[in-house]
């Protein structure tokens, strides 16, 4: 397993740092100061920055970090090129990023919904998915449609159970409150909620989370479940996902 650390930023963001020897790979650095402080403490050199989408809480630190580490290579979604400053490599769906210094190859997954150009980075078992999938939740539809987001989540569902979901926000407890309301017959939710509450009380992250767990407890990933469709009086996965997302926006 790669050595990956969550750097807390803002109110509830995580900036992920993957390290290999003295080198660091950073995912979605919204806050340069948080990253700079950690890299200096750990005596690491910034080599790679991965960007999932254009929102400022994911991109705001790029410029300052590039000034400090000008040789760091910034990868970002090509469809959001006009909205992301200072990137070096623009990525399309199914591109592969070879990072020999980290002994890693990432596959790029186009995941529209939260934003139209949103991408994720997958190198088994690691999935850096930005704001597409959260622990027990999913991202708001700021630019894409519900059908697009369901298609994106369905693509994530094709990955192996042991995939570890590295989302970029600690929204888990609020998401679980909604999940228990939306899916009250799901007996797995109470125990999982208790575990997550213990984690947060100890100031520990509830991420990463195994995809196998999310299949069981995340209502947005369960939109294809016939019993949940029946409870919500919906006839297919897209309609149920649409209803769930709308309900969560108002919850």
From TrEMBL:
Comment on bound cofactor: Binds 2 Zn(2+) ions per subunit.
Source domain of life: Bacteria
UniProt keyword annotations, A-Z: Hydrolase, Metal-binding, Zinc
Gene3D superfamilies in UniProt: Ribonuclease Z/Hydroxyacylglutathione hydrolase-like (3.60.15.10)
Cofactors named for this entry: Zn(2+)
Keyword Zinc listed: yes
Entry GO MF terms: hydroxyacylglutathione hydrolase activity
InterPro entries assigned: Clx_II_MBL, Glyoxalase_II_hydrolase, HAGH_C, Hydroxyacylglutathione_Hdrlase, Metallo-B-lactamas, RibonucZ/Hydroxyglut_hydro
Binding positions for Zn(2+) 1 per the UniProt entry: 53, 55, 114, 131
Residues where Zn(2+) 2 binds: 57-58, 131, 169
Pathway named in the protein's UniProt entry: Secondary metabolite metabolism; methylglyoxal degradation; (R)-lactate from methylglyoxal: step 2/2
Catalytic activity of the protein: an S-(2-hydroxyacyl)glutathione + H2O = a 2-hydroxy carboxylate + glutathione + H(+)
One Pfam family it belongs to: HAGH_C
Boundaries of every Metallo-beta-lactamase domain copy: 12-169
Enzyme Commission number(s) of this protein: 3.1.2.6
SUPFAM superfamilies the UniProt entry points to: Metallo-hydrolase/oxidoreductase
Family listed: Belongs to the metallo-beta-lactamase superfamily. Glyoxalase II family.
NCBIfam families (UniProt xref): GSH_gloB
Subunit architecture: Monomer.
Function: Thiolesterase that catalyzes the hydrolysis of S-D-lactoyl-glutathione to form glutathione and D-lactic acid.
Name of protein: Hydroxyacylglutathione hydrolase
Organism: Rheinheimera soli
